């Protein structure tokens, strides 16, 4: 049970949290380009889908070398599927694997995955064991085929090798096989707070790096994250030599540093405060020029990746266009855009007007 790259990060550690539909490859690339966080996570991907060979799930794992260290996140309930996904993620050259035990969305939790695992520690333990087995087997030389990874997945990753970390991503040689660390991201409880008990259980299952969002499943995103509880979990983790990341409602880099100090955690993960704000980790307010350049770069990279419909970019465009004169008009024009070229045209026209 190694902690790999986590032990090499300079504390306090401020990372980009996983967000489904948000921390997609283009956004992660933008964040890494303008204000590098200490670590970043992919969106979560379903292990059962991967085990069935649904290759359209794989682009969520595209990453570029500049995002490192980058951790891939998985969710699901089938232990065998977790095993196969873990072997595949090792092959893809990720720096770590995170297991989602915190998603409150009913279509996921109702199937026993995500935050529902808080109520099913037996299964949580088995999942952790399976992922560790996948990591170990990979380091010991198992092939994707022998691990039972679906043939569609194998052929997709082999065809799209460069999309996973560029040249030094996909592990080609046996000598490059190494043990990568496992981590878990969860919540402070299901319908009631049970954070301390739950953290102790996870630690007893071999978790060496843990993130907790300071809300229960029942709360979804309502109310406020409970930082007192997160502070108690930080103490337990410290006593057990476990790295602890707290999460929830951090609004600025200054706020992040204050909370880390006050609640004694090793670091924090930042989610929603990065929406439209890839500059978060620099703590600087971007100029209008920076903003327009980032929009263009984001659109260009998104189109280069070309695996998602243009529509999915629009939430990012809407988040970027806030807080400057003319933002509302620009946002409205972006909502009509059908392609990157339309976005560029809107920006060019705006730039001409303000000259
Ligand atoms: C749109 C959205 C998608 C999310 N997707 C994931 C996910 O895929 N995996 C995960 O562990 N957490 C996910 N989360 C939870 C965040 O990682 C984080 O725990 C939560 O937003 C609280 O942090 P914040 O207040 O800094 O946003 C998501 C949150 C949002 C808002």
Order of strands in the sheet with most strands? 1-8-7-6-5-4-3-2
Care to count the β-strands?
8
Question: Which oligomeric form is depicted?
Answer: single chain
What is the count of DSSP helices, taking H or I runs of 4+ residues?
13
Mean pLDDT: 97
CATH architecture label of the largest domain: Alpha-Beta Barrel
Helix content: 40-55%
The coarse silhouette is: globular
Distance between the termini: 58 Å
Strand content: 5-15%
Q: Give the CATH H-level superfamily of the largest domain.
A: Aldolase class I
Q: What profile does the largest beta sheet have? A: 8 strands, parallel
Q: How are helices and strands ordered from N to C?
A: EHEHEHEHHHEHEHEHEHHHH
Number of domains as seen in the coordinates: 2
Provide the structure class: alpha/beta
Which small compounds were modeled alongside the protein? flavin mononucleotide
CATH topology of the largest domain: TIM Barrel
Q: Work out the radius of gyration.
A: 20 Å
Q: What is the name of the CATH class of the largest domain?
A: Alpha Beta
Low-confidence stretches at least 5 residues in length (pLDDT < 50)?
Answer: none
